[in-house]
Design goal:
It contains 2 helices and 8 strands, in the order αβββββαβββ. With 160 residues, the protein is α+β, with helices and mostly antiparallel strands. It is elongated.
């Protein structure tokens, strides 16, 4: 009888510990976000409309605030993308913000060459994104990204 009582107590204690561990809810993990150019459109006045994809890798929703990213197109500095994102992105999701950008003349020439020759061009983003969990203060995340853009057939002045 004594053995059964001890076994029952051990089983009850183990079950209580296991249930207690499960009741803490999901893990709240804040991870570094990323940014990339989803689409770049040359506007009639020579400025660019830049669709910037913001990726939230965190397990919780994040509020994206300030964007401050130096852009290099080809080998040419193109200026700095700055803006206020003003959006919340759900856990492990992405969204797009559109920023208007006035590029440097060297970057305009490099982009015109890529579009005229119907070939791709590399780009780099380097700077910071300011973001925060929806219930906490924000912080800056360092961003460093390199990728490429190619002209979109049938859409003059558009690269993806």
């Amino acid at each position: 009888m004594h053995r059964r009582g001890l076994s029952f107590l051990f089983l009850a204690a183990a079950t209580a510990l296991l249930l207690g561990a499960c009741s803490n809810g999901p893990v709240r993990r804040v991870s570094e976000p990323s940014a990339s150019i989803q689409q770049l459109t040359v506007r009639a006045d020579g400025s660019w409309s830049v669709e910037l994809r913001l990726q939230n890798y965190s397990s919780i929703p994040m509020r994206f605030e300030a964007i401050d990213l130096a852009v290099t197109l080809g080998d040419q500095p193109a200026g700095t993308l700055q803006g206020n994102a003003g959006i919340s992105i759900g856990p492990e999701s992405a969204d797009v913000v559109t920023l208007t950008h006035t590029p440097t003349s060297a970057a305009r020439i490099a982009l015109a060459d890529a579009l005229g020759g119907n070939h791709g061009i590399g780009y780099a983003l380097e700077g910071t994104l300011r973001a925060a969990p929806e219930d906490k203060g924000s912080r800056s995340f360092d961003i460093k990204r390199t990728s490429g853009l190619t002209p979109v057939p049938g859409l003059p002045g558009v690269l993806r």
